[in-house]
Structure formats: C-alpha cells, structure tokens
C-alpha cells in the first residue's frame, strides 16, 4: 500500500487504504459459514451462547443425531391461514447445526395461504409434491413475480425477499422447502406488523397504511392482538 504525502505534509495513507477497500472489497458471505469439522450436533440446551450451538461431545453422538422424523406428518391447517409450516431447522433437528442447510414442510388446505413473509438469513427453494400452488415474490423494487406450479415443479426465493404461496387447487397441497441456513428465520408480515408484543403504535400503522384506526383495530383483532 503506497504512502503518499500531500502538499501540507500530512500523510494520506488512510485515504489510499479506504479507496483500496472500496475498489477491492474483502470477500463477504451470503449464507451460513462453512463448518470447521465433520459435524457438530447442536447442544440446544447449553447455557453457552455462540454463533450457532456448541457441539454435543462426539462420544455421545449416535445415528439418531443424523436423522429426523419431524417432516413425515401432515401439519394441522385448521387455522386463520389454512396452512401449516413444520420446520426442520437447527432448533428442531440439532444435527443441522453449523451445516448451513434446513428444510420446511408446508401443508395447505384448499384456499390456504402461507402469508407474505421473508427469511432474513437464507435463500429458499421448494418443490411442490401435491396440489396446485400459486407462488409469488416481490423484489426490493416492488416488482411482483409469480407462477402457478404443478407437482414436481420448483421455485426459488432470493434471500430476504417477501414471498407467499397460496393453494389455488381444489385439493390439499404439499410442498417441501429448503434453505441455505440452519436457522433461516421468518418475518411473517401480517403478524410482524399487527401482532407484535408490545404493539406497533396505531399512529404508525394508520399513517403507514393510510387508513383510519378502525381498520387497524379490525386487522389486529384477527390476530388476537
Ligand atoms: C415457504 O415459503 C417456507 O418458508 O417454507
Ligand atoms: Mn418462505
């Protein structure tokens, strides 16, 4: 790195370094970091908090740690949205700890919706197993992309973008989704805004949505808020 003297005699090394960093940025990660060992079965009960979970001692690891039965059962779709997301993330399946992957099973009643949401830590892909599913996503530039899928067809949702799926068929629908994070997180937009604890102030919501308080109260009441 060159050290340059300016006219007043002060060094401008800092400026040169800054320009260097702007022109040649350090590599950045777009998904979970790579593991540093074969496996690290998460000790989800540990009182230590790290970026992930500490590893269960290798001597205590058994075959069961690498298998998970949690996605084999149909989820209960008798709810407001007519859908159910069963998560196989590191919390449910500690064998995923540090591996940068996870899955969900999403069941839909006819007409059911997995409401608009985003995953702050992962890109999502999915394959439709049964039914007829409208899958949509909205970009940061407010462009809406969507398609109606048949069984065997796939979709991808770029990291962090708001998306939804809606069963537009006469029968139940089922999809399995996968993520490049062991804990993708989900911001479910209607719950996030209208059922947070404590609540977002009404004045914020009325102004943001350009409606009066009655509308906000009605929406909040649907979510028991
Ligand atoms: C579907 O969008 C899912 O998050 O599983
Ligand atoms: Mn999703």
TrEMBL record:
Xref: CDD domains: cupin_OxOx (cd02241)
Descriptive protein name: Germin-like protein
Main location: secreted
GO cellular component: apoplast
InterPro entries on file: Cupin_1, Germin, RmlC-like_jellyroll, RmlC_Cupin_sf
Signal sequence range: 1-30
Location(s) in or outside the cell: Secreted, Extracellular space, Apoplast
Cysteines engaged in disulfide bonds, as pairs: 40-55
GO terms, molecular function: manganese ion binding
Family stated for the protein in its record: Belongs to the germin family.
Gene3D superfamilies named in the record: Jelly Rolls
Transmembrane annotation, as ranges: none
Positions contributing to Mn(2+) binding: 117, 119, 124, 163
Binding residue positions for oxalate: 104, 114, 119, 124
Residue intervals of the Cupin type-1 domain: 69-217
Protein keywords: Apoplast, Disulfide bond, Manganese, Metal-binding, Secreted, Signal
């Amino acid at each position: 790195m060159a050290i340059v003297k300016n006219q007043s005699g002060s060094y401008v090394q800092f400026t040169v370094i800054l320009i260097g960093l702007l022109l040649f940025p350090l590599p950045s990660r777009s998904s979970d970091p790579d593991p540093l060992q074969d496996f690290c079965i998460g000790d989800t009960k540990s009182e230590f908090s790290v970026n992930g979970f500490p590893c269960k001692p290798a001597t205590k690891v058994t075959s069961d740690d690498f298998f998970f039965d949690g996605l084999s059962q149909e989820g209960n779709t008798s709810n407001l949205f007519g859908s159910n997301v069963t998560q196989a993330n590191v919390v449910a399946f500690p064998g995923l700890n540090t591996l940068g992957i996870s899955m969900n099973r999403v069941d839909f009643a006819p007409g059911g919706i997995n409401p608009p949401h985003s995953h702050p830590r992962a890109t999502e892909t999915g394959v439709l197993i049964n039914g007829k599913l409208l899958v949509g996503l909205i970009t940061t530039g407010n462009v809406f992309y969507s398609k109606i899928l048949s069984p065997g067809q796939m979709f991808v949702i770029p990291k962090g973008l708001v998306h939804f799926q809606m069963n537009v068929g006469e029968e139940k629908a089922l999809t399995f989704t996968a993520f490049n994070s062991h804990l993708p997180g989900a911001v479910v937009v209607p719950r996030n805004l209208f059922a947070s604890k404590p609540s977002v102030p009404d004045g914020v919501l009325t102004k943001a949505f350009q409606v009066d308080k009655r509308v906000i109260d009605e929406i909040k009441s649907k979510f028991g808020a």
